[in-house]
Amino acid sequence: MAKEDELLGVLKKVVAPAVAVDKGTLFVVTANATDVHLHFGGAYSGCPGVPVLERSLLEPLMKSIVPNAKLRVTSGLPLPVGAKLVEPEG
Questions:
Q1: Reduced to 3 states, what is the DSSP secondary structure of residue 63?
Q2: What is the mean pLDDT of the segment spanning 38-61?
Q3: Cβ–Cβ contacts within 10 Å for residue 66, how many?
Q4: What backbone torsions phi and psi does residue 32 show, to the nearest 5 degrees?
Q5: Residue 78: cis peptide before it, omega within 30 degrees of 0
Q6: Which residue of 6, 21, 26, 85 is 20 to 30 Å from 75, comparing CA positions?
Q7: Environment class of residue 19 by beta-carbon count within 10 Å: exposed (0-12), middle (13-18) or buried (19+)?
Q8: What SS3 state is found at 31?
Q9: Which CATH number among 1.10.540.10, 3.40.50.1440, 3.30.300.130, 3.90.1150.10 corresponds to the domain 2-85?
């Protein structure tokens, strides 16, 4: 459970604020030791920059916290079932 809390903390402190600056939103669909599914909305819905964000920021962050988890990143509508908005912290 500590790893999931650490992951959510990083998403709130680092990723969500960076996305919010560009009028995007970040949702967590799944976050555990084996599966991390993040979903982007707002200005990031279908944005061609999402794969760059995934490779340059999300993958390194996830590997440092939950190295065995499979990262899945989606965007757009509809929101995946169970998606929870990550509010930027700070």
A1: helix
A2: 92
A3: 20
A4: -150, -175
A5: yes
A6: 6
A7: buried
A8: strand
A9: 3.30.300.130
Q: Which residues contact 23 (CB under 8 A, 6 or more apart)?
A: 42, 43
Token representation of residue 80: 């995946």
The Cα 28–Cα 58 span in angstroms is 13
Query: Maximum CA pair distance of the chain?
Result: 33
Radius of gyration of the chain (CA): 12
Residues 47 and 2: their CA atoms lie apart, in Å, by: 32
**What's the pLDDT band for 61 if we cut at 50, 70, 90?**
very high
What tokens appear for 90 in the block? Answer: 């700070």
